[in-house]
């Protein structure tokens, strides 16, 4: 910024300048990537797969951003907003890919704002109640550990678009997990009270982790084709990570993961999702003809 | 708060004061370890803290719209913007800490209502157009106030302002760009933009503070190089800059007295309602209670988390000592 002429040029166009605030200087993860569908892949199924992974990110971001102006410390406001922002970025790319794959050309907002909650395909844990900070941390720990394992594999997808999205996501998710780990340790091994909060948080979050490793037929199909990842194949790795972190945080790890049962992936959501989606879509739906 | 380290022995007082005055007159920076008059230090602590509090409380009116931002791009921009504001609060609290106060103490002063923040944030944001207008007018007025502060006499404050102003200029631009888009939209969108402009115009002018004649501290702050321009001068500059933007946008600024003055080469404009200003400053604005209550609630609800972090750090520091 030069001198005091900050306003000079305000009324000129700034089409070339994409950076509106910190973190929105989106580098185009798909620059130069071939968007043609890989051979032998059914576009409809790929679109469904992209919606699953996109919805996970979008719904989790929606939940996490509820901490903004409500976090225990300003540093946590910044960190949680940043994590939500990364996830929104992932969701935008994945939902846009869904619209390409199914041939409808629908954009990211068509998926985010013009589907009913029942049409979302996120895992239930992404929408789970916000709870206290301990619960937020355990939820983030589980989701980021799982998504990091998933995206690491997906970065070798036969679909070059998914591979590029996943490669970008891996760096972000490594940070999300590191952040969750750092707080799991502080809270688990902090005060007696924080330890109790964490014990309760683990008990509440754990039952929802089963679904993370349940394989939907679409996921199975995409995995067979070398395009997607079978989440069932991630359970040992993710469980080991969780056990290691909880152990270091002086917390007991439930001995086994819950049964892998499909829920949100099949549209069977808990009661928390509908209000979350309703709030997200409120303004967009009230002004269907509007431009933003 | 400790001040002893900075207090000079009496016989040295005159030289130290003279050194300080010379530096300020030469527009050199005063740094935290330099001697400074107690009044200068107090004024700075108050001003920087109020500024930091404004960033933090200022997250609320826009933060309310993150959940329902009408497109994913808008959601990302708004989330990033509100996140930046938390970051600005952090830089500013850090600048204040170089003067010997700590952030926890300043937070207490905010949530107990002993320190103020910019009154503008006591107004509600009623529609999504308010997000755009806050970016355009409120961030615009803030930039107008803050750009000169990049040259303020206290080093840490000036350096924090350089960084903050860069980000604020993006914030302002995103607000203006949102409004441009909305004005290209439906009739109802254009109407909500105009209504938001009507709501925020006068409070934005009030952001520069009371008229110079009613601003008793201005002279001293100017002498100390803490302030660079008077309230009225900045207000006028803001009006001159904003009118062409309003024209380009196609909105009307709600001031019948606003007219180009060919002789002065500036716009003439009406007086804000200073009675309303006094009311909002003294706690009777539309959202005063709610803003501080929310900050207090988050702070109190998070106490156990901060205690756990401190306990963990303490435990592991001891571990390290034992290991050594």
Automatic annotation (TrEMBL), chain A:
SUPFAM superfamilies: Ferritin-like. Pfam families: PaaA_PaaC (PF05138). GO terms for cellular component: cytosol. GO terms for biological process: phenylacetate catabolic process. Coiled coil: none annotated. It comes from the Bacteria. PANTHER family: 1,2-PHENYLACETYL-COA EPOXIDASE, SUBUNIT C, PHENYLACETIC ACID DEGRADATION PROTEIN PAA. This is Phenylacetate-CoA oxygenase subunit PaaI. The lineage of its organism: Bacteria, Bacillati, Actinomycetota, Actinomycetes, Streptosporangiales.
TrEMBL record, chain B:
SUPFAM superfamilies: Ferritin-like (SSF47240). Transmembrane segments: none annotated. PANTHER family: 1,2-PHENYLACETYL-COA EPOXIDASE, SUBUNIT A (PTHR30458:SF2), PHENYLACETIC ACID DEGRADATION PROTEIN PAA (PTHR30458). GO terms for molecular function: phenylacetyl-CoA 1,2-epoxidase activity. Pfam families: PaaA_PaaC (PF05138). This is Phenylacetate-CoA oxygenase subunit PaaA. GO terms for cellular component: cytosol. GO terms for biological process: phenylacetate catabolic process. It comes from Nocardiopsis kunsanensis.
């Amino acid at each position: 910024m030069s001198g005091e002429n900050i306003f000079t040029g305000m009324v000129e166009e700034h089409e070339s300048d994409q950076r509106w605030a910190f973190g929105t200087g989106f580098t185009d993860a798909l620059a130069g990537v071939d968007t043609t569908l890989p051979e032998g892949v059914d576009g409809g199924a790929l679109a469904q797969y992209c919606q699953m992974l996109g919805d996970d990110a979008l719904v989790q971001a929606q939940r996490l951003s509820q901490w903004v102006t409500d976090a225990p410390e300003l540093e946590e406001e910044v960190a949680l907003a940043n994590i939500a922002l990364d996830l929104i970025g992932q969701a935008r790319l994945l939902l846009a890919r869904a619209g390409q794959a199914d041939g409808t050309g629908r954009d990211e907002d068509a998926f985010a704002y013009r589907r009913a909650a029942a049409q979302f395909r996120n895992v239930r844990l992404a929408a789970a109640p916000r709870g206290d900070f301990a619960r937020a941390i355990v939820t983030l720990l589980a989701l980021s550990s799982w998504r990091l394992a998933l995206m690491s594999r997906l970065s070798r997808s036969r679909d070059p678009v998914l591979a590029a999205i996943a490669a970008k996501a891996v760096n972000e998710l490594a940070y999300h997990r590191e952040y969750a780990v750092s707080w799991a340790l502080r809270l688990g091994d902090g005060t007696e009270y924080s330890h109790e909060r964490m014990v309760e948080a683990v008990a509440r979050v754990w039952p929802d982790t089963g679904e993370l490793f349940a394989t939907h037929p679409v996921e199975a199909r995409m995995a067979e084709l070398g395009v997607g990842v079978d989440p069932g194949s991630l359970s040992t790795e993710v469980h080991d990570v969780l056990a290691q972190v909880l152990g270091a945080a002086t917390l007991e790890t439930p001995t086994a993961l819950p049964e892998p049962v499909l829920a949100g992936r099949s549209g069977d959501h808990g009661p928390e999702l509908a209000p979350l989606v309703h709030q997200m879509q409120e303004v967009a739906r009230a002004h269907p003809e509007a431009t933003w | 708060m400790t001040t002893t380290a900075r207090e000079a022995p009496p016989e040295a007082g005159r030289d130290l004061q003279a050194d300080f005055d010379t530096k300020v007159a030469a527009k050199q920076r005063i740094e935290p370890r330099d001697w400074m008059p107690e009044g200068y230090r107090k004024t700075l602590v108050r001003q920087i803290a109020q500024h930091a509090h404004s960033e933090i409380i200022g997250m609320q009116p826009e933060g309310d719209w993150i959940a329902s931002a009408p497109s994913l791009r808008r959601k990302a921009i708004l989330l990033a913007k509100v996140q930046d504001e938390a970051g600005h609060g952090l830089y500013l609290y850090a600048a204040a800490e170089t003067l010997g106060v700590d952030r926890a103490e300043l937070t207490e002063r905010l949530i107990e209502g002993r320190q103020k923040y910019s009154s503008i944030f006591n107004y509600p944001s009623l529609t999504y157009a308010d997000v755009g207008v806050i970016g355009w007018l409120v961030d615009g007025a803030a930039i107008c106030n803050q750009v000169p502060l990049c040259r303020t006499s206290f080093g840490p404050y000036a350096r924090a302002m350089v960084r903050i102003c860069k980000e604020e200029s993006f914030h302002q631009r995103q607000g203006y760009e949102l409004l441009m888009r909305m004005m290209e939209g439906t009739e109802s969108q254009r109407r909500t933009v105009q209504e938001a402009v009507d709501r925020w115009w006068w409070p934005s002018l009030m952001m520069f503070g009371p008229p110079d004649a009613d601003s008793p501290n201005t002279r001293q702050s100017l002498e100390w190089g803490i302030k660079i321009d008077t309230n009225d001068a900045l207000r006028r500059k803001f009006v001159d800059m904003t009118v062409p933007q309003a024209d380009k946008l196609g909105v009307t600024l709600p001031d019948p007295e606003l007219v180009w003055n060919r002789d002065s080469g500036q716009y003439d404009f009406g007086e804000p309602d200073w009675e309303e200003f006094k009311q909002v400053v003294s706690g009777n604005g539309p959202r005063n209670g709610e803003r501080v209550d929310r900050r207090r609630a988050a702070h109190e609800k998070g106490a156990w988390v901060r205690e756990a972090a401190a306990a963990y750090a303490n435990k592991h520091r001891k571990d390290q000592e034992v290991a050594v």
